[in-house]
Each structure stands twice: as C-alpha cells, then as structure tokens.
Design brief:
The structure holds 2 protein chains of 2 kinds.
Chain A: H1 5-12, H2 17-33, E1 38-40, E2 43-46, H3 53-72, E3 87-90, H4 107-122, E4 125-126, E5 147-148, H5 151-159, H6 170-179, E6 181-183, E7 197-205, H7 208-222, E8 227-233, H8 238-251, H9 269-273, E9 281-284, H10 286-296, E10 307-310, H11 317-327, E11 337-342, H12 344-353, H13 355-361, E12 365-368, H14 372-375, E13 384-387, H15 390-400, E14 403-406, H16 409-418
Parallel strand pairs in A: 2-3, 2-5, 3-4, 7-8, 7-9, 10-11, 10-13, 11-12, 13-14
Antiparallel strand pairs in A: 1-6
Chain B: E1 8-11, E2 13-16, E3 19-26, E4 31-32, E5 37-38, E6 43-44, E7 60-63, E8 66-67, H1 72-81, E9 88-91, H2 96-105, E10 109-111, H3 117-120, E11 126-130, E12 135-139
Parallel strand pairs in B: 3-7, 4-8, 7-9, 9-10
Antiparallel strand pairs in B: 1-12, 2-10, 3-11, 5-6, 11-12
Chain lengths: 435, 144
C-alpha cells in the first residue's frame, strides 16, 4: 500500500502505540483487499460496548483498554486507548438497566455494558445505541466518506444519502475511529457505484411489508452487487427505504442500490448504470412476490404465536405511532408478548407523544438500544414469533431456534391480540398487473 | 493444472501470509458470520446451509465468499480467541467481510485463484496453503 507521510508516521508510532496498532490493522486489511491507499473518514459507526463472554474475560484480564485492543484493533499489545480521533458512534448493543425485569436478559451483561458506556463515553464515543444512526442525528451528507458497520445502516447511507461506506467490521471501524482512515476500496470509488442489475417491478409496492419483500428479492438476485429498481413502486418514505435496504442486505450482501428519480446518485435510469449501459430487466411480478412471501414464511408451522417483534431495523416515530394506533384499546393475548424495538432518542419522543403509554396499556413493550438478535433473548418459552421485518424473519430462526411468521403490522398486532397467526398474502396486484 | 502424482496446484493471491496444511471443508454456498456460525463450537449453524452442523475447526475452509451482517469478521475473530478457528481459508470473492475476517482470524488465506476452488477442491482433500508464494496444493482424498 502507498501511505502518506502522515500515515507512515502513525504506523511508526508518532501518535502513540494504540494509533500505531490501528494503522497496522488497516495496512493488513488494505493489503488483504489488494487496495492501494487509505482515504480520510470523519464519521465512524462501530461497536465497542456490546457485551459478550469473550469481552467479559478480556475486561477481567486488562480492563476496557485490553478489550478494545484485542477486539477493536486486533492487537495483542497492552495499549492505553486514546480519545477517538473522529466522530464515532456506538450502534445497537445489549439491553440497558431499564430493561431489567422486563426482558429475560442477564444482569451481569447489563452491568458490563454500563461500564463500557462509561469508559467509551469518556473516550468520545457517542452512545446512540441504534442500528439506525441516521434516524437520530448521524446523517452523513452526499459524498461523505464513512466507516460504518451494520449492513442495514451501510446500505441506507450509500443508497439513500449518497454517502460512501463499505460494510466495515468491528476491527476496521475501531481502527478508523483512532486514525480517521479506512481502505479506499469498494464503495468509496466512483466506478464501483453504478448499478449492475435492473429489476422491473410489476406488482404494486407501496407499504413496509412490500418494500421488505422487494428488498429480499433484490438481495437474492444481486448478491453483493448493485440492483436498480424501477416500475410499479410508490414514492418511498424513510421507512420503506429502511426496510428494502435491510432486506436486500439480508438475503444478499447488497450495500448500494438505486431507485431512479428517488435516490441521489440516480437522477435517471441511464445515470444509475453509467458507462456500462442499461442491462435487460429481471421482473418482480406477482409470482416472484408470492415466492418471496413463501420463503419468508417457510419456517412457520404452528399458528400459535408467543411473541410479536416489531421495529427491525429500529422503528421510526411514525412506526411507533402506527403500532400505538393499532393497539389502542386492545389487549394482548395472555400467552403472547409484543416488543417494539426503538432508538432510545425516539423512545423519549414516543413517551412524550403518548405512544408508549398506549402500547404498554395494551400489554406491549417499547424497548430501546437492542433487539432479540443482538441480545439473543426472546420472551421465556418462545417457540413461534411473528414480525413485519424480513430481516428478523430470516435471522431469528437460526439465532434463537424459533419458528417465524412474516406479515403486515396489522397481521402482527392481530396475532399479538388473538395469540394466533392469520396472515396471508393479499392479492392486491391482480388488477394492476396487466403488463 | 494436474501433476502426474495427482496433486492439483492453484495459483492465487495472498490475503493473509503464511503456510499451513490441513483437510479441506468445502462450501458451495456463501457463509454468514453473525447468525451463521457458533464461534464457541466452530460450527455452521444456519439451518438451510449445506454445511449445517459441520465443524470447521482446524480445517481449511474453502468457500465462495462471505454474506450477511457486518459482524462477519468479529465472529471469525472470536473463533481464534476461543480456539475454534479454521486452519486456513480459500475463498473466491473478496469483500470487506471476507478480507477483514481472514486478517483477524490470522490464518493463511488465499483468493483470486486461477481455478474455482469450490469446484476443484472437495471436502476431505488434503490442502497445503503457501500464501507467501500464492499457492495451494491439493491432494485429492480420492487419491490418498
């Protein structure tokens, strides 16, 4: 790799041993990518505070300095961790103290995370504690180079905001936070940002569930490449784009997509594809939609639902309000729990807006900071869960060994109230699909 | 190319330098880290995966690429810290996940090979990675 004089200095220890270790990791990583140089970043989203058994052992051995050195810098040296060099936020992690007694989550993990927040807060880490930093104040601008983790946030930053980030990992984000550098590779480069696959939508996509299914299809088709989506789609809002991205990053490894006329790097279809030209389209019609729906519901056999999970990625204020309206005046089935996962900053808004009270009066819970996949917990005894998130329907069966149902918010709330899954795929597309 | 002995040589690029020899475990599907492996056991846990339940500890993991969450590298780093890591890695497609994952697992790793490693190598073959010279030598189990 070609390093600048500043970078050579960092590698040589001019800014202390922790920065040198960070630069060493970036050089090993950049070499592994066959990348020529680093680029400057001033916006890092990573993970340091999430508790784990390995981290607990490292903290017991050498405190949080040791944990950061080993996990976030991949270094075996005894390092004292300096303040973050550039703006760095913590993504979603485990549950906080206010969840104790509400969710079956070990007290020692809450305590470990509390210690971590104190340590990293002092070192300049912003404890946003959400998979959607773009909802709570970390909104990179177009063209801004970032070092973000969290696949659903990376795809949002690239596609919707026009920022430039690869899907970083724990160690590369940690190294970026102490150096303000990351390999200039992949999504940082102009020629890697053009579309590769064209999807022509022939079935109306205009709500969260539909955006999620379309995203799941797009990820299956494009793998790690870049789908461009046109056709019979409504004008998406933040929530629709949050869900199409999360799903495309789940079924595939999509980090960037374009919707001509909507997303910033695709003013036109031609602009989305650039010099290579527009390829032939792959159709997403009623048959493809039905296949995605069947795939997402292939883990469900029992219609007795113990657990309803909403808010993956973390809910917007609008979604919290919709859940409150759907639950207003109703009461959950005695054997069923409902959790709505939200960013803590938006929980404050939900509390003030009266949404939390309505949801809790019905028996539901509004929970901040985490999710069942990150914290690996569900209500005790859960065998079957329902969700409006394609991402959770995909992952939770593997992570928690439970069955999944995927459907609309209203179907999920109905399952929470009745304890039974009655969801089905609405055939709304028939009248519109005559092409 | 195949030598008279039956040894197959693949030429590629080092992702992580070093030399190691071990039995191959070959996946034809991409692998998830978070939600895909259990680092405590060194086992693939994704229910629909072709290697579901198989252990990669001490073997050369041969796979097309990484998929899923950005936790990929952290999960493979944990296999090193917990003593369940693969002995080496050979993969077709470089991404930030697979590249950083190999780096923090700190095992010899190759990519950009002149043949499709997932087609040429079979589970049970004895594989020697010489990443310093960009080589993998494959001794097919069928000839052992």
């Amino acid at each position: 790799m070609r390093l600048t004089e500043e970078e050579k200095g960092m590698l040589g220890g001019a800014e202390g041993p922790a920065v040198a270790a960070a630069m060493d990791l970036l050089v090993r990583y950049g070499t592994a990518l066959d990348c020529e140089q680093l680029c400057d970043v001033r916006n890092v989203a990573g993970t340091m505070t999430q508790p784990s058994p390995v981290k607990a052992r490292l903290v017991a051995e050498g405190g949080w300095d040791k944990a950061f050195a080993v996990i976030n810098l991949d270094s075996d040296e005894d390092l004292e961790i300096p303040p973050m060099r550039v703006a760095t936020c913590q993504l979603q992690h485990g549950f906080g103290a206010d969840a104790a007694g509400t969710v079956p989550y070990p007290a020692q993990l809450i305590e470990l995370q509390g210690d971590a927040e104190a340590f990293y807060g002092r070192h300049g880490v912003q404890i946003l504690a959400t998979c959607t930093p773009y909802q709570v104040g970390n909104l990179p601008v177009r063209g801004e180079h970032c070092a973000w983790m969290e696949s659903s946030a990376v795809i949002y930053a690239n596609s919707v905001l026009g920022a430039r980030t690869n899907c970083e990992g724990t160690a590369s984000a940690g190294a970026a936070s102490l150096t303000g550098k990351v390999p200039c590779w992949g999504n940082h480069l102009d020629h890697n940002r053009y579309g590769t696959h064209l999807i022509d939508v022939g079935t109306r996509v205009d709500d969260v569930t539909e955006w999620g299914m379309l995203g799941y299809f797009a990820g299956s088709l494009a793998g790690e490449e870049r789908p461009v989506i046109t056709g019979d789609i409504g004008r998406p809002d933040l929530v629709g784009l949050k869900h199409i991205g999360a799903a495309a990053a789940t079924s595939g490894g999509v980090e960037l997509y374009h919707i001509p006329g909507i997303t910033p790097e695709a003013p036109t279809l031609e602009a989305a594809f650039g010099p290579a030209g527009v390829p032939g389209a792959v159709r997403y019609g009623p048959d493809q939609r039905s296949a995605v729906y069947a795939d997402l519901n292939s883990c469900g056999t029992s219609a007795d639902v113990d657990f309803v999970l909403l808010g993956c990625p973390h809910a917007s204020v609008d979604q919290i309000g919709q859940a409150a309206r759907a639950l207003d005046g109703r009461c959950l089935s005695p054997g069923t729990e409902l959790w709505l996962m939200v960013p803590r900053a938006l929980k404050v808004v939900a509390d003030r807006s009266g949404y939390t009270e309505i949801i809790e009066r019905a028996g539901g819970k509004v929970l901040a900071d985490s999710c069942p996949a990150m914290s690996r917990v569900a209500p005790t005894g859960t065998r079957v869960f329902a969700t409006d998130s394609a991402k959770q329907a995909h992952y939770l069966p593997a992570i928690l060994g439970i069955e999944a149902w995927f459907g609309t918010l209203d179907e999920c709330v109905d399952a929470a109230v009745t304890g039974r899954w009655h969801g089905f795929l609405r055939d709304h597309s028939l009248l519109r699909d005559h092409r | 190319m195949t030598r008279p002995s039956g040894l197959i040589i693949l030429r590629g690029r080092a992702v992580v330098p070093g030399v190691v020899a071990a039995e191959a475990l070959v996946s034809h599907e991409t692998i998830s880290g978070w939600g895909g492996i259990d680092p405590a056991k060194g086992v693939i846990i994704e229910p629909r995966h072709e290697l579901f339940g198989q252990c990669f500890t001490g073997r050369i993991l041969v796979f097309p690429g990484a998929k899923g969450s950005s936790g990929w590298s952290g999960f493979f780093q944990s296999t090193r810290l917990l003593g369940t890591a693969p002995a080496g890695m050979i993969f077709s497609r470089v991404s930030t996940k697979s590249a950083l994952g190999a780096v923090v697992t700190r095992v010899p790793a190759l990519t950009d090979l002149d043949q499709d490693p997932c087609a040429v190598i079979s589970t049970g073959d004895w594989v020697r990675i010489d990443a310093d010279h960009g080589l993998a030598e494959v001794n097919p189990a069928s000839l052992q």
